[in-house]
Amino acid sequence: MKRLLLRLWLVFTLFFCFTPNALAENLSVVETLSFNQMPPFEQGGSWPSIGEHAAKIGYETARDWVSGEYPIDVLKVGDILDGLHPEAFRLSDLAALDTLSIVDIPLVADLPLAVLLKSVPFSGDWPLEQLPGVAEALSQVAGLSVKPTETLNQIVSKHADLGELLTGNVLGDLPLMTIPNIELAKISDFEGFQEQALSSIPGLGDIPLGEFPHPLTLLNVTAQQDIAFGPKEYAGDKPTPKPVSGSIEAGFQVPCVGGCPHIELTGPGWQGDQWMTKDHRVADGHGLLGAIPGMDEAGAYRLPFGETFALQIRSTDEKTGAADWGLAFRVCSSGFFVDLGCTAYALEVPLGITTYEKDTILTGIKDGMGGRSQPVRAPPEWEALRPATPPDVQSVISRSRSGRNRGGFGLCGEGPGGVDFQSLAVAFSSIEGNYNSVGSYTAGGRGLGRYQYMTYRADVREIIRQKPGGAAFLDKADRGGAISSSEVDQFFPAADQDSLFKADQTRNIEQAISEGFSGSRIIERVGQIHFGGPAAPIDGNASDTHGRLTLKTYGEELAHSYRLAETQTKADSQCKAQTPVQPLKTHLTGTLSAQEYGAPRGGRQHAGQDLDLGPNDSFQSYIGGEVVNAGYDDGGYYHYIDIYNADLGVVERIAELDKFSVGVGDIIAPGQVVGQGTTTTGVVHLEYRDPVNAQKQGGYGIQGTYDPIEYLEGLGVLQRNGQTLNPVGHSKGDGHDH
Predict the structure, then answer these.
(1) What phi, psi does 726 have (nearest 5°)?
(2) Distance between CA 223 and CA 265 in Å, rounded?
(3) Sign of torsion over alpha carbons 288, 289, 292, 297
(4) Strands, DSSP E only, in 339-403?
(5) Where does the signal sequence lie (predicted)?
(6) Distance (Å, rounded) from C-alpha 178 to C-alpha 171?
(7) Are 712 and 592 in contact, with CB atoms under 8 Å apart?
(8) What is the rounded average pLDDT for all residues in the chain?
(9) Strand 310-317 and strand 297-299: pairing?
(10) Neighbours of 656 (CB within 10 A)
(11) pLDDT at 311 over 90
(12) How would you write 109-163 as a 3-class SS string?
């Protein structure tokens, strides 16, 4: 396993089981393999829990395995959803159902009877006289005397306790085909299907990987490392003839001249292709962030994991045939009012992974886009390798935000221990002042803004120094010169204050928790640390220059104000998205399908607008706000979310995508991607409607809705042009047409 380039989460389970050489010998056999044919794990291992996110994806990822266990017993259906989509299989596609009993399929047997009847279409509407053995089972297990003409739905409605019993405990010994329409049910119809082990679904383990609804074709995403070359290769004027690395901006066929360390690839579709090391510098990045010196080029890379991070060869050793690998990250900022673009993938980190000649490596699909058109899932811990944003990049982002409405939105969310940042900020403000407040000169500096951060603090000085005239402002503050409120707005704006506050208080909260504090005492201790620094004695009597508050009383006052602010914050829902004022520039808008707003739908009217997108395209919120509802409706919406924009007083409903990347409680910016995939219906469904309840969720039917296209045109976001939608302010052919 040490010599594997990537330990993929699951789609490529083979990498856990086969050595690189075994895969390289005959990659073409991979598509014919099934999970039942995969050998046992050569060594034990584990996958981590993803905590609260498990509820969003429908199953728990954590598990351990030991050497000798088989993948089919360890892997769950949820593990392979993104790559193979087994949930689209009907049970009858996988096995001969007439040979099975109900107890043979945990997917069915482990569901409460009432839940099963909802999962299998019309299964509860058949009279018992047509369901051999069911009446006898109900009598034996539950002691019920039932009529032959009664249906299971009628019986469960009269005996709620029966509906709560597991199907296997009630009907387990009966043939599976006793359940009407069971042959029509898909894996995804059954609640909790993601949690099921692959081995628990009869026949699933016998399906070749190339015959799943989304077939796995490793030939498209892997290659064999052939030869590693050093810097003397192509040292003259002759360019490398078959490059497959580069950047988003320069493309992924960027030739190298003048000394080009690289690896040469082999294998079907990759014969003789050349992947350059990061020493091959290519243009990258776009927008304002992409123009920052040092952030406008990257080492050559590919994107097999999508755009989250890039995969690079850091160096090669021609003598040993080795290639050392790393990741490269970038920084992007779309903001609410301006799209700042992205830096180059210039933040490079080593992976500590080395491959050698004849090893199998991950390339991503050969699509001319570096592999990002069909991204695979990376080990989740790799995102944690992201370096801190460079100060010059953060400065550009902070300056761009200084024109926003004053503060607040960036404080949404909770810190360690469940501390609400918004409430904590309000509590501090009740003691310290407003965003443009100026404190007294003391100990060589002044307190500035809502949280009275002192000008002698290194982090405050770094923020201010990046602003034009910032150095002179700091010099004046150091000398005790008079500072105006307008100068605070200029050199230490609200967005910078909130950004620093959130990071600073996170550290303070963590310190308080590590010292053993809990509940309201966390807030008290946070106040003491803010007031007197990390070394402040617990409940100390030291006071400020005014003598009004001590460490102890400052903390107590902060905790009292926090409790009041927390109640008010929850009541007022202060974490609101802002009304969009900038048209979308980079995300797909789709083309209008035949199902337009108000179209007849079998006695009713279409309440939204359908947009045609590609099967793997992403889609975004147009107005932003808070996700107030997320669910599944098999009556037409399928997977959907409701986003409430408090400023507009409207609910944006996005439906029929294959999966969403956001959940209830998330704050969404206008233009933020929220989901991907249209294989369910071929379109994405968009609605705008009035909220119908206290949770600000949308209702159903056309009443209270708005024509989505007219609504977005009225906001100045999009403009209709025939069957296409164009961002306002852009003309055909300017690069923003979709």
Answers:
(1) -120, 140
(2) 6
(3) negative
(4) 341-342, 347-355, 360-362
(5) 1-24
(6) 9
(7) no
(8) 80
(9) unpaired
(10) 25
(11) yes
(12) HCCEHHHHHHHCCCHHHCEHHHCCCHHHHHHHHHCCCCCCCCEHHHHHHHCHHHH
- The DSSP secondary structure of 623-681, one letter per residue, reads S-EEEEEEEEETTTTEEEEEEEETTTTEEEEEE--SEES--TT-EE-TT-EEEE--TTT
Statement: 591-727 belongs to CATH 3.40.50.300: no
Query: Which element (helix H / strand E) includes 572?
Result: helix 551-572
Token duo for residue 273? 């292709």
**pLDDT at position 652, please?**
94
C-alpha span between 657 and 55 (Å, rounded): 19
List all residues 6 or more positions away from 476 whose beta carbon is below 8 Å from its beta carbon: 483
Q: Which of 376, 256, 392 is nearest to 316 (CA)?
A: 256
Rounded distance, CA 713 to CA 715, Å? 5
What residues pair up with 247 in beta bridges, in sequence order? Answer: 251
The 8-class DSSP code of residue 409 comes to: G
Contact yes or no for 645/652 (Cβ under 8 A): yes
| Contact status, residue 327 vs residue 351, Cβ threshold 8 Å | yes
Which pLDDT score is estimated for 204?
A: 92
Nearest to 451 by CA among 472, 487, 421: 421
Structure tokens at 110: 């482990």
Using CA atoms, how far apart are residues 408 and 686, in angstroms rounded to an integer? 29
Cα separation, 253 vs 242, whole angstroms: 7
Q: Which DSSP letter does residue 211 get?
A: G
Question: In the chain, how long is the greatest CA-to-CA distance?
Answer: 94
Q: Kindly indicate the confidence band of residue 583, based on its pLDDT and cuts at 50, 70 and 90.
A: very low
Q: How many whole angstroms separate alpha carbon 579 and alpha carbon 559? A: 33
Laid out side by side, the sheet with 659-660 consists of 618-620, 673-676, 659-660
Residue located via tokens 């080029």:
297
